[in-house]
Design goal:
Elements: H1 3-14, H2 16-30, H3 35-39, E1 43-47, H4 53-60, E2 64-69, E3 82-86, H5 89-94, E4 101-107, H6 116-126, E5 127-138, H7 142-155, H8 172-181, E6 185-195, E7 200-204, E8 210-216
Parallel strand pairs: 1-2, 1-4, 2-3, 4-5
Antiparallel strand pairs: 5-8, 6-7, 6-8
Amino acid sequence: MSTDKEKYYQPLKLMLPIRYQYMKKIMLSKNKDTFEINFKNKKILDIGTGTGEFLEIFADIGANCLGVDTIDNFKVKKHKKLKLVKADLYQYLETIPKNYFDYIFCFEVMEHLDDKKKLFKLIKKTLKNKGILFMSTINKNIISKIFAIGLAENIFKLLPKNTHEYDLLMPIEELEKLCGDNNLSIIDVTGLKYNPLFKNFNFSSFQSLNYISAIEN
């Protein structure tokens, strides 16, 4: 993997624990089953799966997992419960039957997409009734422009330059509209903050930078 790719995936890897913690919090608030039971033998789609390492966690607990990305940077090569596909996201999702997935993951993807409306329509089509979408992205405002792009990419070099394009960032208001237009219900939106000292992410009431959400069909 090139230096730029390694630099791109490093902060994403730091986000894996907080994603898991968030999903556990949401699922345990909805029912009394153990976290693993909620996913065992369920169908999961991971949009923009990256290396596939986060999805592998759910394959290991018995979920039937499909990860799709436009680039093959997959690190998980063989797993009987996990399939990783390099494909155009929109075109591939159009081939999926209606009401197919129990869960859809879409982490750090929306800020790279031009046609968010189309993706949400495809999510609505392929997600089962009462299925849940877990999504995280970057808010769109002057604060995120300064910190997520100006400082992270140009000053501190935490990410390769031009990783993010400001016009593609998604404000929470746009998320709310996309959900409303597709009859999806927002369960929760929580802010995420990065601690540069410990190099980890934590939950925050501050939603102006990164945020994570749970959405039900």
